Amino acid sequence: MGKRTVIPFGPQHPVLPEPIHLDLVLEDEKVVEAIPQIGYIHRGLEKLVEKRDFKQYTYVAERICGICSFMHGMGYCMAVEGIMEIEVPERGKFLRTIWAEVSRIHSHLLWLGLTADAFGFESLFMHSWRLREEVLDLFEQTTGGRVIFSVCDIGGVRKDIDAEMLNTMVSVLTRMEKELRDLTDVFLNDMSVKHRTVGVGVLSKEKAQETGAVGPMARASGISVDMRTLGYAAYKHLQFEPITAEAGDSYARMEVRIGEVYQAIELIRQCVELIPEGDVITKIKGNPNGEHFIRLEQPRGEVIYYVKANGTSFLDRFRVRTPTFANVPALLETLKDCDLADVPILILTIDPCISCTER
Amino acid sequence: MYSMEEQKIIKISPDEILAETVDLKNAGYRLVAISCVNKDGIELSYSFDKDYDFVHLRVNMDYDTEIESVSCFYQYAFLYENEIKELFGVKIKNITVDFNDNLYRISVKTPFNMKEEE
């Protein structure tokens, strides 16, 4: 055994968009162990449920994270709807699905850009984020916001999208799909990208199960789990299969996320074809009383929402278990025996969202 | 249908947590999350999944009761348990990787006690 050195990684590091701290125990250039510490952006958002009534809290839930903001609002609303036995109108469900899938495209493009930046491929980073800007424009045109949308409400959604805008969305995404092919060809085939990702940070199927990995992290290790197959919102009307890969390395995780961008575009097309006319929201009466667990598939993976209500307008508890929190043990596993130089890439390949993790 | 998943909550005593957890582990369930409610005592929910079958073990106990860690069966439970121990003050023993209330680097004293603030 060589001499061991402990290197503090983060909370501030060029590759980290958000602060997390890892103590890396090294033997020469190899990582032997990684010990995490969190809390730099713990905002106590779960506890805020005691100070905001359950309708106001929809806005707080959206602010857990700036990337999955729509899905956080949606998951919270679905949990309250579960307690109050509220049936969301079908058109509202389709609109939720469309915005959720646009969020997935936005999140994955953001991640691709950050990953390219992490291995020093600046032009690839810029092209990824240029396409992402077009997705943000779609959000702005349909909701009025680019990061926080405030369109999800208990009982449905606050805004409708007219047929013309839905068709515009499809045509923008169809045009974007062609540009995406050029972009993703580089991610999947470029020698320098492969050099940094193929065989790096392998998480076997068994290890993925042992560490409780979720989302693209698990699917890239051959575990076919995708909460969308539960059929919440409008997913029960849509044709799709979870996208998986077998290698379990950084390249496979990239492959899965790239596949999911194309899948999301296809799901939006299906939604636009199938969306029925009608109301988008059901009026709610009274206060929730009871408890409910809900789970969704965010871009980063399975997310759990738990709401416990007492019949007043203030909830007893709101709990969210985010995919990044679930993927931290898998990250620690992939860091074992890796080269120090690969640590930034490996941290990025779980697509970490620390705002979500710490709440 | 307003919810796609049946809410399967099985109430158990703190003493039964290891036996019930190992049964689920042997049946092929994965641990999805551990959640805590701190109001009139501690309420812990251990959520498990197998092929989209979502099951929750529910433990109600007072503030002084100590509960065994399930990290001996699900190693990754250490993160959930450290968080609950640190932020809610739940007494959890034998966590495989125990951060001793230092998982969160926050300046506020933990555990957060809802009762004192009311």
Please provide a brief summary of the model.
The complex is a heterodimer of chains A (359) and B (118). Chain A has helices at 57-62, 69-84, 90-118, 122-143, 163-189, 191-197, 205-210, 215-219, 250-274, 323-335, 343-349, 354-358, and strands at 4-9, 21-27, 30-37, 152-153, 156-157, 289-298, 301-310, 315-321.
Q: What does the model show?
A:
The complex is a heterodimer of chains A (about 350) and B (about 120). With about 350 residues, chain A is an alpha+beta fold. Helix content of chain A is about 45%, strand content about 15%. Chain A is built from 12 helices and 8 strands. Chain A has a 3-stranded antiparallel beta sheet with strand order 1-2-3. In chain A, strand 4 (about 150-155) and strand 5 (about 155) form a beta hairpin. Chain A is globular, with a radius of gyration of 20 Å. In chain B, about 20% of the residues lie in helices and about 30% in strands. Chain B is built from 3 helices and 6 strands. Chain B has a 4-stranded mixed beta sheet. In chain B, strand 3 and strand 4 (about 55-60) form a beta hairpin. The longest helix of chain B has 12 residues, at about 75-90. The interface between A and B is large, with 44 and 33 residues.
Side by side, the strands of the main sheet of chain A go 1-2-3
Number of helices of chain B: 3
**CATH architecture designation of chain A:** Orthogonal Bundle
CATH homologous superfamily identity of chain B: NADH:ubiquinone oxidoreductase Nqo5 subunit
What do we call the CATH topology of chain A? Cytochrome-c3 Hydrogenase, chain B
How many H/I helical runs of chain A? 12
First-to-last CA distance of chain B: 37 Å
Proper CATH architecture of chain B: 2-Layer Sandwich
- Give the overall pLDDT of chain A as a whole number: 90
SS-derived structural category of chain B: alpha/beta
**Morphology of chain A:** globular
For the largest beta-sheet of chain A, the strand count, sense and barrel status come to: 3 strands, antiparallel
| Total domain modules of chain B | 1
- Would you tell me the overall average pLDDT of chain B? 85
What is the CATH superfamily label of chain A? Cytochrome-c3 Hydrogenase, chain B
